[in-house]
TrEMBL record:
Short name of one Pfam family: F420H2_quin_red
Highest taxon above the source species: Bacteria
Record lineage: Bacteria, Bacillati, Actinomycetota, Actinomycetes, Mycobacteriales
GO molecular function, a single term: oxidoreductase activity
Stated name of the protein: Peptidase
Length: 131
């Protein structure tokens, strides 16, 4: 399932700024810092993130035209801010939600499966400092 673009625009302008304030305290939310592929600006997008054995699976609710996804795929890199940590991520790839489910940490799979999205982006944890 994909969320309509009107909802995406509302979330970008209204919901996301409020969500960034609470993501540090919620277990399955994180803020993804990414650089605009055209503007070069830094963006911080709150997203549903699930730990895998070598990185994170991030659910894609708005399909491949999603700005954060296009930015991360173009750069090949992003920084996840989660629970007071900055985690350097790279090697992004979009897969079906079902394919990513097997990689999600077992304690998180039930909640991961509860979200009605079709795709996920897998990102690997990079070694070294984030930034």
């Amino acid at each position: 399932m994909r969320v309509p673009r009107q909802v995406a625009e509302f979330n970008k302008r209204v919901t996301n700024p409020a969500a960034r304030a609470i993501t540090p305290w919620l277990p399955y939310l994180g803020t993804l810092e990414h650089v605009g592929r055209k503007s070069g600006r830094r963006y911080r997008t709150p997203l549903l993130v699930f730990e895998t054995h070598d990185g994170y699976a991030i659910l894609v609710g708005y399909g491949p035209q999603t700005d954060w996804l296009k930015n991360v795929l173009a750069r090949g890199h992003a920084v996840l801010h989660k629970r007071g940590r900055a985690i350097d991520l790279g090697n992004p790839r979009v897969v079906s939600k079902a394919d990513a489910a097997a990689l999600v940490a077992p304690h998180s799979r039930l909640l991961y499966r509860a979200f009605p999205y079709d795709e996920a982006t897998l990102l690997l944890t990079n070694e070294g400092p984030a930034g």
